[in-house]
Amino acid sequence: MTFTTVSSRQFNQDVSKAKRAASTGAVFITDRGRPAHVLLSVEEYRRLTGSKRSLVDALSMPGLADIELEFPRSRTLPRAANLT
């Protein structure tokens, strides 16, 4: 994916050029030299937001087996609930 940066003025003067650039990657639109907006193709936007992973997909991610987790254990028993 390529990234293109254009100023707000350049964007306003040549929107079609920014749209063509968005077909190959994100286009960052700056205001006073700072990124203010990002232009993406619909396909890229849907790829980023539209696919919801299931729990099985999330747990089967590559490299997940290399992560070590420690769960704290308590030796105290939970108290009985007072329901009165």
What are its keywords?
3 strands; 3-stranded mixed sheet; 4 helices; alpha+beta; 18% strand; 84 residues; single chain; YefM-like fold
Can you give the helix content as a percent range? 25-40%
Question: What summary fits the major beta sheet?
Answer: 3 strands, mixed
Strand content: 15-25%
**Low-confidence stretches at least 5 residues in length (pLDDT < 50)?**
none
Overall residue-averaged pLDDT value: 84
SS class: alpha+beta
- Total DSSP helices: 4
List the helices and strands and how they pair.
Blueprint: E1 4-7, H1 8-13, H2 15-22, E2 27-31, E3 34-39, H3 42-49, H4 55-59
Parallel strand pairs: 1-2
Antiparallel strand pairs: 2-3
